[in-house]
Specification:
The chain has 168 residues and is an alpha+beta fold. It has helices at residues 27-37, 76-81, 95-107, and strands spanning 19-24, 41-42, 48-49, 56-63, 68-74, 89-92, 116-117, 122-127, 133-138.
């Protein structure tokens, strides 16, 4: 077994995330969710189409303030496998921002949690059209606390790791 490689043979540094890829079983519904509720912009010039049939299988959306690109790609099996999973947690500045997000979601008829107490801050949870959890976590913090909000439809720990499954 050899030791660490020298820096001369190390790969170049990673500059950041180029784009995120999110599976969906319903591309139009997921696109509407991202562009209407989350205020991403659809970039149709980056639409992905099959060469042989011209069938649309993926779209790119962008979060203008940060430049973040997200690819929404049809993959029914993967979308089903990620139901109840929160692959991405969006960041907001304050608990008040979470409350404003909640107001917006409720105004749009989207079911969501109340603002929940997390380990170090507060979190808001909803589902996208495929049933994947979408979470927002605020940078405003409180002292570390293991007495997080648990149970109910929207447990803080969406993965059920320390949540009674009968509470869902």
């Amino acid at each position: 077994m050899s030791g660490p490689k020298s820096s001369e043979s190390s790969p170049p540094s990673i500059l950041g995330i180029h784009h995120l890829k999110i599976p969906t079983s319903n591309l139009p519904a997921k696109l509407t969710f991202y562009t209407t509720l989350l205020a991403f912009t659809h970039l149709p010039h980056f639409d992905h189409r099959r060469a042989d049939t011209n069938e649309l299988y993926a779209v790119i959306v962008q979060h203008a303030p940060t430049g973040l690109l997200v690819e929404l790609r049809i993959n029914e099996a993967q979308a089903q496998a990620q139901r109840g999973w929160d692959a991405i947690t969006w960041s907001v500045q304050t608990r008040a921002d979470l409350e404003r997000w909640r107001e917006k979601l409720v105004e749009q008829g989207v079911e969501c949690s109340r603002v929940l107490r997390g380990y170090k801050g507060w979190v808001l949870v909803t589902e996208d059209p495929d049933g994947a959890f979408v979470r927002w976590y605020c940078l405003e913090t409180h002292e570390w606390d293991v007495n997080i909000d648990k149970g109910g439809r929207w447990p803080y720990n969406a993965h059920g790791l320390d949540v009674d499954p009968s509470s869902r």
